[in-house]
Amino acid sequence: MHPRPTLRGVHAPVLVTFVASLALVLAGCGGSAIDPKTAARANNLGLTSGNGQQVTSVNGPVSSNGPVVSDGATNGPSGSSTGGPGGPSGQGTSGPGAPAAPGGASCAGFKNSKGITNDTLRIGNSSDISGPVPGLFTAAQQATAAYVNYFNSTGGRICGRKLQLDLYDSHTDAGGDQIAYAKGCESDFAMVGSMSAFDSGGAKTAESCGIPDIRAISTTVERGTCKTCFSAQPAGPDAFQNAVPDFIKRRTGGKNAAMLYINVGASAANGKSQAQHMAKRGMHYVVNQGIDITDFNYSPYVQQMKEKNVQSVQFIASSAQFVRLAQAMVSLDFHPKVVMLDPSAYNSDFTGPGGSAVVGTYVFMNFVPFEEASRNPEITLYERYLQQVAPGAKPTFFGLFAWSSTRLFVQQAVKLGGKLNRASLIASMRGVDNWTSNGAHAPQHVGSKKIGDCWRFIQWNGKAWVPVEGRAYHCDGLTY
Hints:
By secondary structure, the chain is an alpha/beta fold. The chain has 2 domains: 37-83 and 93-237 and 376-429, Response regulator (Rossmann fold); 240-369 and 453-479, Response regulator (Rossmann fold, 3-Layer(aba) Sandwich), CATH 3.40.50. 32% of the residues lie in helices and 16% in strands. It contains 14 helices and 16 strands. It has helices spanning 16-25, 36-42, 138-153, 174-187, 203-209, 221-225, 243-252, 265-280, 299-307, 319-331, 348-354, 377-389, 397-416, 422-429; strands at 54-59, 120-127, 162-169, 190-192, 213-217, 229-233, 240-241, 257-262, 285-291, 312-316, 338-341, 362-365, 454-460, 465-468, 474-475, 478-479. The strands form 3 sheets. Strands 8, 9, 10, 11, 12, 13, 14 and 15 form an 8-stranded mixed beta sheet that branches. Strands 1-3-2-4-5-6 form a 6-stranded mixed beta sheet, sandwiched between helices. Helix 11 links the parallel strand 11 (338-341) and strand 12. Helix 1 runs antiparallel to helix 8 (265-280) and helix 4 (174-187) packs parallel to helix 5. The chain is elongated and about 70 Å long. The model is unreliable at 1-20, 23-55 and 59-100 (pLDDT under 50).
């Protein structure tokens, strides 16, 4: 039995998607509300295995199963190839005659530094691979490796250097995160695409050594305030997007709302704070109720909502608990106008076991649903190269933002050209705003670290997730 990690410092209302679920996963040894096999299925066919902190190193085209796309493969959508083929960029540590980086600044004056040789530029990724839920954020490493594969195999170069990726396991533990970042500080130019439930551990280490840390998503206050750390999806201050309560109000007027949450750590904090924020936006909650993690009988909560004529239900929990509530609602013939869940319900572990009981559920999200990949070249590109590094793996929310953060790193590095070093990259990141990774997700305020206010909605019809109120994002501001 391992010591239970602390949830101190987890962003409260913003990152419901994963923090609340992690609160359930890590609530105690043997007390997880999520079967470890669930995460393993979601992140099937990981890149690596083995013990120790550093998992593996990826240089050039990568795969967990044989060769992959060769040089000369078709590039992605217009504007997606941020590096492009580049000639040799000087044989020394600098060179005034170095060629310009395609799409970027001149490489004149480029100097090798930590993690950079004449041929390669090393980046690291530290994500939760082992721990209470094996493979929790394997998707983040798969997606980072997928972008490295895409960049290298299509001739991409940063002033003549290919990317080399070092993979680290943060073990779903703050201490593991700190150890990984200590190694990354010594070996890599930057850390990219990382995702860890307890990422506070490496925050001080990253800032102290000055390594740029361009994460998929940050999960703790400590990481959010780290001066060298940024995220493709920032966490930001204590705020919540207005698009969600506005959507509900269009259907119920905001009357007789219910907020349920599993009464553990971040889940409880999220439930209370979200209800407070949305009440300021015009929602009227008649039920704001925590459910004990050991409670498997949801009928009393459903009966309470039925007696109070609840018109909309929100629930912060895991997929298994979403299903349990839905089934209890059906058994008690309770049918509110709106059941609204966060993006963690956007998976087959909710729709499969839920069956007819979950039909009609709404989900809010800030990225293009994977069902719409044919309409979005960037999503298609992510899915294509994901199969090159992890055949059979499914695209995920976490993976998409890891892909996005890797593209962002490359874009900024290429733009700096010969001026690229750790300090200049960090300074450049501070100016990034409205980042969408070629339209794969809603605009993100990376440099200012403020959460985005643009969200859209989908609904499960029993066979597929379908868009509601169109495919456009609703950018309705934030409530603090």
